[in-house]
DNA sequence: CCGGTTCCAGTTTTACATCA
DNA sequence: TTGATGTAAAACTGGAACCG
């Protein structure tokens, strides 16, 4: 569990949250002598005698939620002093305010995670598309290369029939000199054939993936 | 070490909305 | 209208961390 972000607050919270805080008193008054267990009965009967409408209501009013939201917007953490002040202002138990902030932080965290996930997904999809585009480009270039090689071969063969001279031999030499780096640029060196013969499958998978999740 | 407090993650309970 | 079902919010539980 990660408590680090709250370390600083926790340094002084105990001083601000005395053992005889109002809620503890309430629990004591309700007759729970030892540890303030707050377990509810299965059905909320609104208190000991099961009754008043006010007690039975659990949902906070829009006004209460508004004020809580405002406070949460200012600061996600709730110091004891602010909790008590808010509770007084809203006519709520400080414990309720604390619980509300706790749940609100959890909702906020979930939302942030969802946003993060969504952004990562978008970025991943963009990368897949880019990868697909590049692979297609590699295929195109490979085709061009193949055509060029054929053309060279054709020229060389026709050149054999022509009386050889200095220019033709120099041409042949120059091609040999060009070939290795020319291939190297397209990654033939040190790459296996999948790089060139795999892309269609890869692109298909990428597009299927995107269709599946978009 | 202990008791009291906070926090969080996970769970349960409740209120409310929707739909057949 | 009503009961089943889903969902969001309120409340709870238990464990970890920290402090005096």
UniProtKB/TrEMBL annotation:
Biased composition of type Basic residues is found at 35-44
Which portions of the sequence form the region Disordered?
A: 28-61, 155-176
Principal place where this protein is found? Answer: nucleus
Short name of one Pfam family: Homeodomain
- Bias (Low complexity) occurs at 164-176
Q: Which residues bind DNA?
A: 53-112
> GO terms for molecular function, please?
DNA-binding transcription factor activity, RNA polymerase II-specific; sequence-specific DNA binding
Q: Name one GO biological process term.
A: response to auxin
SUPFAM superfamilies reported for this sequence: Homeodomain-like
Q: Cross-referenced SMART domains, in alphabetical order?
A: HOX
Q: Where is the Homeobox domain?
A: 51-111
Q: Which UniProt keywords apply?
A: DNA-binding, Homeobox, Nucleus, Transcription, Transcription regulation
Among the entry's GO cellular component annotations, what is one?
Answer: nucleus
State the source organism's domain of life: Eukaryota
Q: Which InterPro entries match?
A: HD, HDZip_class_I_plant, Homeobox_CS, Homeodomain-like_sf, HTH_motif
User: Where is the protein localized?
Assistant: Nucleus
Of which family is this protein a member? Answer: Belongs to the HD-ZIP homeobox family. Class I subfamily.
Explain the purpose of this protein.
Transcription factor.
Under PANTHER family, the record lists: HOMEOBOX-LEUCINE ZIPPER PROTEIN, HOMEOBOX-LEUCINE ZIPPER PROTEIN ATHB-40
Protein name per Swiss-Prot or TrEMBL: Homeobox-leucine zipper protein
Please report the organism this UniProt entry assigns to the protein. Vigna radiata var. radiata
Q: What is the lineage of its organism?
A: Eukaryota, Viridiplantae, Streptophyta, Embryophyta, Tracheophyta
* Gene name as annotated: LOC106777399
């Amino acid at each position: 569990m990660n408590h680090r972000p709250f370390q600083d607050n926790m340094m002084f919270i105990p001083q601000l949250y005395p053992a005889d805080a109002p809620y503890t008193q309430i629990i004591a008054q309700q007759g729970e002598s030892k540890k303030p267990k707050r377990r509810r009965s299965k059905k909320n009967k609104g208190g000991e005698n099961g009754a008043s409408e006010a007690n039975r209501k659990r949902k906070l009013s829009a006004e209460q939620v508004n004020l809580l939201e405002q406070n949460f917007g200012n600061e996600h953490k709730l110091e004891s002093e602010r909790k008590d002040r808010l509770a007084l202002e809203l006519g709520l138990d400080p414990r309720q305010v604390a619980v509300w902030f706790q749940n609100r932080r959890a909702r906020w965290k979930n939302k942030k995670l969802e946003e993060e996930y969504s952004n990562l997904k978008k970025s991943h999809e963009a990368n897949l598309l880019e990868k697909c585009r590049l692979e297609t480009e590699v295929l195109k270039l490979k085709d061009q290369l193949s055509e060029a090689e054929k053309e060279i071969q054709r020229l060389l063969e026709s050149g054999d029939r022509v009386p050889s001279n200095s220019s033709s031999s120099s041409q042949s030499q120059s091609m040999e000199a060009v070939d290795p780096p020319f291939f190297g640029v397209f990654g033939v060196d040190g790459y296996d054939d999948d790089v060139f013969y795999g892309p269609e499958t890869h692109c298909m998978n990428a597009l299927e993936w995107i269709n599946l999740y978009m």
